[in-house]
Amino acid sequence: MTSSSAPTVRENGTGTPLVLLHAFPLPARMWEVQLERVPGPAGDDARVIAPDQRGFGTAPLGDLPPSLDTAADDLADLLDSLGVERAVLAGLSMGGYVAMAFARRHPGRLAGLVLADTKATTDTDAARANRERIAAAVLERGSVDLLLEERMAENLLAPGTEPELTDTVRQMIAEASPAAVAWAQRAMAARPDSLDELAALEVPAAVIVGELDTVTPLSEARMMAEALSDAELTVIPAVGHLSSLEAPETFNAAVRALLKRVK
Ligand code: MLT
């Protein structure tokens, strides 16, 4: 396998390029509702682009060492291949970490930023050790079952979520490959603090968080919104970590409001 990764890309609409960056360990398929609706009734409010990130969905993992910088550079390559110079990035959780890495490495290519259910701070030592425990376990067992059970137990979705959505999320997690899960855990463990980069950004931004998100809680969202010079914070009531799936209408409205602020 080569060191480069050609992600599978879903695309819909025309207008301002908007790249949706998926969470861990889900594929770009998590953005189906946003792909369909964010371009608006005439389909010309946004060119929505949702790539599978390295190792997930149908994107090859490649052989580069784990790093979110690599995932950010994959995205720059993707924009090149699509003929897009600048784009609005919207990342949820791990997707947000990749968006922040992109902002650090390719700032001139960022037209706006949506940070959803994510955080700009680094992991604690305990969180890093836990990621390594999971990475080693899934590789050793050749199965992501352990991650699946632990993730679902973490209340990714708010209590009372419809069983259909819970099943869909379980299914998407179950499809992740052990190698991609281990790579991404190690890449996330190594990420730096991004609060200073956020403070230096001059593009419009939106921060979105589910009120009941316990993985990347409201306190983290507030920190990012305060660091950014031009950010609007949307807190979605009664929703957990996967806000784009749990409350797509409110999520999409916040994204569409951000698109109107982008020049
Ligand atoms: C995600 O949803 O992408 C993950 O919870 C991110 C993380 O593990 O920090």
Describe the structure.
- The chain has 263 residues and is an alpha/beta fold.
- It is 44% helix and 15% strand.
- The chain has helices at residues 32-37, 68-82, 94-105, 125-141, 145-153, 163-174, 178-189, 195-200, 218-227, 243-246, 248-261; strands at residues 9-12, 17-21, 47-51, 87-92, 110-116, 205-210, 231-236.
- A seven-stranded mixed beta sheet has the order 1-3-2-4-5-6-7, with helices on both faces.
- Helix 3 (94-105) links the parallel strand 4 (87-92) and strand 5 (110-116).
- The longest helix has 17 residues, at 125-141.
- The protein is globular, with a radius of gyration of 17 Å.
- The termini are far apart.
- The model is unreliable at 1-5 (pLDDT under 50).
- It binds D-malate (MLT).
Q: Distance N terminus to C terminus?
A: 40 Å
Q: Note the total helix count.
A: 11
Average residue-wise pLDDT: 95
Q: What structural category do the secondary elements indicate?
A: alpha/beta
Query: From the alpha-carbon coordinates, what is the Rg to the nearest angstrom?
Result: 17 Å
Flag low-confidence runs: 1-5
How would you sum up the major sheet? 7 strands, mixed
Beta content comes to 5-15%
Order of H and E elements: EEHEHEHEHHHHHEHEHH
Outline type = globular
